[in-house]
Amino acid sequence: MTKDSARKAAFARRKEAYARGQGQAAELLADFLARHAGRTLSGYLPMRTEIDPLPAMAAHGGVVGVPVIPGAARPLKFREWTPGSVMTDGGFGTQIPAEGAWVEPEVLIVPLLAFDARGYRLGYGGGFYDRTLEALRARRPTLAIGFAFAAQEVEEVPTEPTDQRLDAIVTEAGVRLF
């Protein structure tokens, strides 16, 4: 299966899961993140049918940033976010804080279309998180936590040598470590 056909199927599965609701997923994520209090966290502002990490981000005991896309084929940058941040258009359909410090996360909540039991994720195809994780992990230990609906699990995500594995996945069904 190609990544393009896998993405099409994954969007459909995620849309169905989103319609059913995310249950206690955000609470499970917040509980998992509690052991990383004090470490800089990156989350994301959910778009369309993405599972919503905002309650877990708001509960985090430390600095929280959100991704900013500086341009095609470049690693993400991260701007500090709080629940009261004034937001502005960040391009690519995203919202970003209008102002705030640039931060470097040690723990990232990573959005995705699909994941597998090996810890690989299928993203949107821009390679932003793979480039970002590779750069961050080259400097120091960096934890990547996928956040998704359990229904987004597939037998096997098509991979390439540049794909970065997740360290854990949190769904409404629980936490799995890879």
Question: What is the secondary structure topology, with strand pairs?
Answer:
Layout: H1 3-20, H2 25-34, E1 41-42, H3 54-59, E2 64-68, E3 77-80, E4 87-91, E5 94-97, E6 107-110, E7 114-115, E8 121-122, H4 128-139, E9 143-147, E10 168-171, E11 174-177
How is this structure best described in words?
With 178 residues, the protein is of the alpha/beta class. The protein has a single domain (3-177), classed as NagB/RpiA/CoA transferase-like (Rossmann fold). The protein contains four helices and eleven strands. It has helices at 3-20, 25-34, 54-59, 128-139, and strands at residues 41-42, 64-68, 77-80, 87-91, 94-97, 107-110, 114-115, 121-122, 143-147, 168-171, 174-177. The strands form three sheets. A seven-stranded mixed beta sheet has the order 3-2-1-6-9-10-11, with helices on both faces. The longest helix has 18 residues, at 3-20. The mean pLDDT is 95.
